[in-house]
Amino acid sequence: MFPTVRPRRLRRHSKLRDLVRETTLTPNDLILPLFIRHGEGEEVPITSMPGHRQLTVDKLPQEIKEIESLGIPGVILFGIPEHKDAVGSDAYSDEGIIQQAVRAIKATGSDLLVITDVCFCEFTDHGHCGIINDKTGVMDVDNDATLEILQKEALSHAQAGADLIAPSGMMDGMIAALREVLDENDFSHLPIMSYAAKYSSGFYGPFRDAAESTPQFGDRATYQMDPANGNEALREVDLDVLEGADILMVKPALSYLDIIHRVKEAHPELPLAAYNVSGEYSMVKAAAANGWVDEQRVALEMLTSMKRAGADMILTYFSKDAARWLSD
Ligand code: PBG
Q1: Least C-beta-crowded within 10 Å: which of 7, 62, 281, 300?
Q2: Does 307 participate in catalysis according to the annotation?
């Protein structure tokens, strides 16, 4: 008799399919990015990311209530300051847009996890992730000068009440520098989620509109990773582990499922996050708007595949939609 092995037997009954399902996705896996703008009483739609908008601080309490009611455990904040300058000083000002937003969320009494993105690209007038100079003969982001302002930024986020900080600038020594400044200032309890393997990716396009952070010259290839490299991601990750990262992240997610898998295999002892970035979201939205794909189905399939690859949590613009779909 042929075939003797019949995998289809386990697929016949829907309840049996439920029992043998290997990967589950729940609202509890999701982190929602929010864009906070200066000003008052405004919601500015982000055209390239349907369903998302820049919110002013006074609009946050309402938004937070909705997010909590959906069972989403955390948010990550990105800021659009009123003034940008060469060193991104709003990023480390106690009156900066992020610091105000964190305090406003905490003032609601919500216990939502508040994560802050620690970077400079939204705050500098040139749009790069740190201080620019030509010390080495090439116009570039000065690694060690940037570490100093990153320390100021992280400390001021901690003082404002952030629960988890997420440095995304891909500077060398970044995690060690931040761990040091937090520990020296009574924040040894504050965890760091490192954007450990962050690629120089075209998939960030819509985010740069949303956060008004497109580089005014050049690109980020001297600090973010080459999409062609996989082994190098493990090197970046190992360094961050040694420097004390508490949670690792791979970004983007969809084109980097192999990296998610390899990082999880190399460091099963650490929680791993995947960032389902703006371009990945907007592609689905655009295709769905044209009737070319079933949005719910492909979005949940993408998120599930990130978990299957090894992610423990996912930062995604689909968080609210996915939480609704999953609870239906
Ligand atoms: C940098 C940062 C970026 C994103 C998150 N943090 C943009 C970049 O590196 O240009 C992109 C997220 C997305 O595309 O959804 N602060």
Answers
A1: 7
A2: no
Complex-level ipTM: 0.95
168 lines ligand 1 (CB under 6 A): yes
Residues 17-36 have pLDDT tens digits of 999 999 999 999 999 999 99
Give the whole-angstrom CA distance, residue 90 versus residue 97: 7
Domain span at 298: 22-327
129 among the known binding-site residues? yes
Q: Is the CB of 212 under 6 A from ligand 1?
A: no
Expressed in angstroms and rounded, the spacing between residue 277 Cα and the centre of ligand 1 is 8
Predicted TM-score (pTM) above 0.90? yes
Strand runs labelled E in 104-226: 113-118, 132-133, 140-141, 164-167, 193-198
Could you tell me if residue 57 is inside a domain?
A: yes
Query: Which one is catalytic: 59, 135, 152, 198?
Result: 198
The residue count of the chain comes to 328
Q: Is 12 within the bounds of a domain?
A: no
Distance CA 239, CA 237 (A): 5
What is the C-alpha to C-alpha distance for residues 139 and 276, in angstroms, rounded to an integer?
Answer: 31
For 225-257, letters b (16+ CB in 10 Å) and e give: bebeeeeebbebbebbbebbbbbbbbbbbbebb
Tens digit of pLDDT for each residue in 72-96?
999 999 999 999 999 999 999 999 9
Q: Which atom of ligand 1 is nearest to the CA of 206?
A: 14
CATH value at residue 26: 3.20.20.70
Determine whether the shortest distance from the Cβ of 120 to ligand 1 is under 6 A: no
Answer yes or no: is 198 within a domain. yes
Q: How far apart are CA 71 and CA 3, in angstroms?
A: 46
Question: Which residues fall within 8 angstroms of residue 220, CB to CB, at 6 or more apart?
Answer: 128, 129, 170, 200
Q: 16 lies in a domain?
A: no
